[in-house]
Each structure stands twice: as C-alpha cells, then as structure tokens.
Write a structure and sequence with these properties.
By secondary structure, the chain is an alpha/beta fold. The chain is built from 9 helices and 7 strands, in the order E-H-E-H-E-H-E-H-E-H-H-E-H-H-H-E. 46% of the residues lie in helices and 15% in strands. Helix 3 packs parallel to helix 4. The radius of gyration is 17 Å and the shape is globular.
Length: 252
Amino acid sequence: MSIEIDLSSDVAVVTGGGSGIGEAIAVLLAEAGARVAIADLSEQAAKSVAEQITGKGGTAIGVALDIADPDSVERGLSVVREQLGPVSVLVNNAATWVIKKFADTTAEDTQRIVDVTLFGTINVMRASLPDLLDTQGRIVNIASDSARTGEHSMSVYAGAKAGVVAVTKSLAKEVGGKGVRANVVAPGTTVTPGSSAFIEQVGGVDKLARAYPLGRLGTPADIAGAVLFLVSPLSTWITGQVLSVSGGFTML
C-alpha cells in the first residue's frame, strides 16, 4: 500500500516562483501533477523554472507579474486562465525585505516592503478569488516565523508578514463555508540566495543552526513539502492555520 498525492486536476499559481522557495514549491506541485504557472517579477527566471518542469514531462508556464501592481496581477492571471485554466491552488510566496535596524529603515523602504509583501499578497488573492470560489480551491500564503516572534533588523518585514497571517485567517473565515481553504506556512531561516545576507549578518550557517533543535537550517524542499500537504486531500479539514516549518525553533 502507498499514498500518492494527485493534483492532476489542479492549476496552481506560485508567486515568486523563479528561484529559492518558490521554485521548489512550483517543481513539487508539478511533480504531483498540477499544471503550474510560475509568476515572477523576472520573466526570464519564471520561464527558466517552467522549462525545467516541462523538460521533465510536466505542464508549466512562466508569467511576468509584479504583485505590487494590481493591473499586472490581472494581466498575469488572464494569461494563466487562457493557457492553463482557472486557478484552484494559489501559493503567495513573493516578498521583499531590507536588513536594517528599525531606526535606519526609510519611509521608502517601508513602503516597498509593505506594497510587495502585504499588499501584493492581497492583490493576488483578490484577483484569484473568483476562480478559487468556483473550484473550491486552496490558498497557502508564505509568511515567516518572524511574524510571530519578531526579527532583529527586519522589523517592517516581520510586521508585513504578520499582516499576511491576519488576512489569511480572516479570509479563511469568510470563504470556508464555500469550500475554500486558506492557510499559512511560516518558515524559519531557510538557505536560499535571498537569505544569504541575513545568514551572514547573524554569524553564518553553522552558528545559526545551533539555535534550532533539529540542528540545521531549512531548505526550500522543506517548505515545499509543507505546502504540498496543505493543498492536498490530506488536509481537507485544516484552514486558517499557521504551520511553522522551522526545525523546532518556533513552538507555539
């Protein structure tokens, strides 16, 4: 006997899917059979991941999309619908941050972080919601354990991610009766090209890993596995939850 997760009837959109955690999520959903739209600010990166998937026999497209721009989101989702069909799985992974103490964070820094990390997530959820209601879809928003614990030199990012948690829980209450589930995955420190500056600032991989009960930092595959669970039939009675994927660092 074995359990197989089959997403062959699903169309998944993964924002920030051109690298790192988003890339790992897109590839794993495709391996489970989903038709995947990799949405990224970099069209080249998005198409590169799509080619990786199609080269292994999967179905994927790369879409240029700026989540901070509602018009760009609408255009991108129109492409997804035309080429793949209505969205039934949405993974909001795209975000931005600066590594600065709060006193050094400028108004421009703050606006950009909130526009992308919080408002961008909302923009994509709003534009995708009609499809998700029609398909009784699933939403997984990638937040951060910093949303619940705070983070030195990333205060505005932590605040924006806390907003993502709150809006996800609120939406879960609104749409649960219509068959749509919405959850959050909150990664601990995960080794990606985008996290390298933060990891070095706090002393490097080995030093930081000692703070984790499981003795290592996360990988993109760790986060992707949690997302796959939350969009699969294995989690049909789970909504409005925050799943910390952090090697035991955050226990709430």
